[in-house]
Amino acid sequence: MNVLGLINVPIWVVVLLTVLFLFYWYATRNNGIFKKIHVDGPTPWPVIGNVHEVLRKGFIEAYDEWFKKYGRVFGHFEGSHPLLVIGDAEMLREITVKEFNTFTNRRSFGILEVAEPPVTDFLTVMENDDWRHNRNTLTPAFSGGKLKKMTDMIIDAGETFVNTLKKKADTGEPVDMKEHTGAYTMDVIAATAFGIKLDTQTTPNDPFVKHARKFFDFSIFSLSLIILFFFPFLKPLIKVFKIQISPKDAINFFSNVVKQALAERRNNPGKYSDFLQLMINAEKEAQSASGNMTGSHSNGIVDESEGDDAYWKDKRKGQGLTDSEILAASILFFAAGYDTTASTLAHLFYHLAMNPDHMDKLITEIDEHYPDGKRPDYESIGKLSYLDMVIQEGLRINPPAGRMDRVCSRDITVRGVHIPAGMGVALPIYMIHHDPGYWPDPEVFDPERFSPENKEKHHPLQWIPFGYGPRHCIGMRLALIEMKFIIVQLLQKYRFVPNSKTKPLKFKDNPLLSSTKTGVWVTAVHRE
Q1: Which residues pair with 304 in a beta bridge?
Q2: What is the rounded CA–CA span in Å between residue 506 and residue 508?
Q3: Phi and psi of 403, rounded to 5°?
C-alpha cells in the first residue's frame, strides 16, 4: 500500500468518505435485528428499508406478498425503523391487553420532539401519563347516555342527506357516495362536537370539508416525513427551519373555529350537550369517571375485561384538560371523525349495490322495525341485528385503516418471539381481516359471518377495525351510531344499484385505506 499516496489525498475527500461511511453504518445498523430474534422478512435496502416495495406495489399488495411468503409474523423496515408485523390473533391479545403496559404508546417517529401544540396534544400521538389522563377524561363524552342526547342532531343531518339524493334519484344521475358521506359526517361532527349547524351536503365546497380533507392528503415525499423516516438524525433541522409537519392552514382553520366556540361558551354559558361542553366541564367529568376505566373493550364479537386496574391511576386526576388539549381533541374529532366514517359508509353502499340480496334482507328488517318510514330512535336502532351484521362485515372487508402501530417499551417475549425495547409493532388490520385462515373466501361480502352463531367461532382479535384493548378508537360508538342511522334513513327511501361508473374498490398506496383511486359510484333509485 502506498502510504505516501494516502497522505496526499485532500482532507475534504477523507472527510467526505468518513461521513459517507458513518451514514451507511447509521442507516444499516439495525438491518440484522430480525435475524437476531429469528423472524423472517424481506431484505431491506440501505436508508429506505422496504419502503420502495410499498410505494411500487401499494400497501395491500406488498403486505399480501409478505404474509404469503413469511407467515403471520415477519419484520420489515420503514427507512431505518424496524417494524415487527404480527398477524397472529393470540399474540395480539397479549400485546393489546395483557401486556398493554409494555405496548402503551403508538409510533410517533419523533413527532413529539419536533412538533408544537396542538399537534403534540393529539390523543393519537400522546404518550404514557399524558395519554392516560386525556383518555380517561374524554371517555365519558362517548357514553351511551351522552350519545343518546345527540341523536336528533345525527338524524337531522341524515334527513338532509336523504333530501340531497332525491334530485339525483329523480334523474338517475350517478352518485359518488364518498363525496356525500363525507359531507354527512362533517355535518354530524360539527353538530355533536361543537353545536355548529353546517350544511356541507348542499355546499360541497364548504371550507370545513376543504380543510378536513387536507389532513389525509399527505405524501411520503413531504420533506418532514422524508427526514423522520429516512434521516432521523436530522430531526433538529425541522425545528430550526420550521419545516411543516402537519397541514398548517387546516390546523389554523379548525383552531380558530374552536377558539371562537370556547370564547362564546365561556362568555355566555348555556345548556349544551356536545363534546366541547363536556371538555369544558372535564374536571368534574374526570373526577366522576376516574378509576372506572380498565382494559375492557367490546369489539362487536365478544366482550373482554382484562388488564391491571392500577395502571389506570390518573396522576392528573381532577385537573381537567388544558386549552391546548381541548383544542387538539377538537381538531382530531373533525379530522378523524370525518374521513374514516365517511369512507366506511361509502364502501358499505358500494357492497350493498353489488349484493342486492343482502340489501333486500336489510331493507326487510328496516321496514319491519320502522313501518311507513317511521323515524328511527336511539333505543330501537340497536335491535336491528342484520344491520349490525352488515356494518361489521363492511368494516371487515374494508377497514378504514390498514394497520395500527405500537412501540415496545421493554424487552419482552410474547409467545416465543423476543421483542426488544424500542421495536415498533404493527397490527396489520387489513391482512387479518383478509386472512383466509381466519375468514374463508375473504374477498366475498357476506354479513352472515357475523350472525350470532358464527360470532362464537372467531377469535376477538380477528376483527379489529377500531383497534383493540385500552387504546382502541375512542370514537367507535359515535361512528357506529352515525352509520346505523344514515343506513336506515337512506334505505327507507332508496335502493342502490351499480352503474357504468361503478368500479372495483382500489385504494391509494398508503395504510390509511380510506381513499380510493376512483370515486365510489352508485345510483340511488326510489323505492316503489
Answers
A1: 297
A2: 7
A3: -160, 160
Distances (CA, A) of 411 to 33, 102, 311, 314, 419: 13, 9, 19, 25, 6
- Looking at the domain assignment, is residue 441 inside a domain? yes
Rounded Cα–Cα distance for residues 465 and 397 (Å): 10
Measured CA to CA, the distance from residue 496 to residue 356 in angstroms comes to 8
pLDDT at 219 over 60: no
CB-CB contact of 243 with 232 (8 Å):
no
**Dist. CA 253–CA 250, nearest whole Å:** 5
Euclidean distance between CA atoms 44 and 83, whole angstroms: 11
Q: Is residue 244 part of a domain?
A: yes
What CATH number is associated with residue 333? 1.10.630.10
Check if the beta carbon of residue 85 is closer than 8 Å to that of residue 424: no
Domain that holds residue 346: 87-526
Q: Would you give the distance in Å from CA 177 to the centre of its chain?
A: 20
Give the whole-angstrom CA distance, residue 140 versus residue 291. Answer: 12
Q: Are 99 and 415 in contact (CB under 8 A)?
A: no
Reduced to 3 states (helix: H, G, I; strand: E, B; else coil), residue 321 is coil
Render pLDDT for 413-431 as a digit per residue (tens, 0 to 9).
Answer: 999 999 999 999 999 999 9
229 backbone dihedrals φ, ψ, rounded to 5° = -80, -50
Distance between CA 343 and CA 502 in Å, rounded? Answer: 16
Dihedral sign (CA 330, 298, 158, 151): negative
- Determine contact, residues 93/458, Cβ cutoff 8 Å: no
Taking only the tens place, the pLDDT of each residue in 132-187 is: 989 988 888 888 888 998 999 999 999 999 999 999 999 999 999 999 998 899 89
> How many residues are recorded in the chain?
528
* Domain-embedded: residue 242: yes
Over residues 101-120, the pLDDT tens digits come to 999 999 887 777 777 888 88
Query: Under a CB-based contact definition with an 8 Å cutoff, are residues 354 and 498 in contact?
Result: yes
Question: Which residues 6+ apart lie within 8 Å of 487 measured at CB?
Answer: 345, 348, 362, 387, 390, 391
Neighbours of 1 (CB within 10 A): 5
Whether 47 is covered by a domain: the verdict is no
Distance, in Å, from the CA atom of 339 to the CA atom of 336, rounded to the nearest integer, reads 6
CA distance 248 to 4: 56
Distance between CA atoms of 5 and 399, rounded to whole angstroms?
63
Cβ atoms 506, 516 nearer than 8 A: yes
Q: Per the structure block, which three cell numbers stand in for 107?
A: 409510533
For cell 435496502, what's the residue? 45
**Cβ count near 27 (within 10 Å):** 21
CB of 188 within 8 A of CB of 480? no
Is 428 in contact with 87 (CB distance < 8 Å)? yes
Q: Cα(448)–Cα(430) distance, rounded to whole angstroms?
A: 19
**Counted domains in the chain:** 1
Q: How many helices (H) and strands (E) does the chain have?
A: 24, 11
Beta bridge partners of 520: none
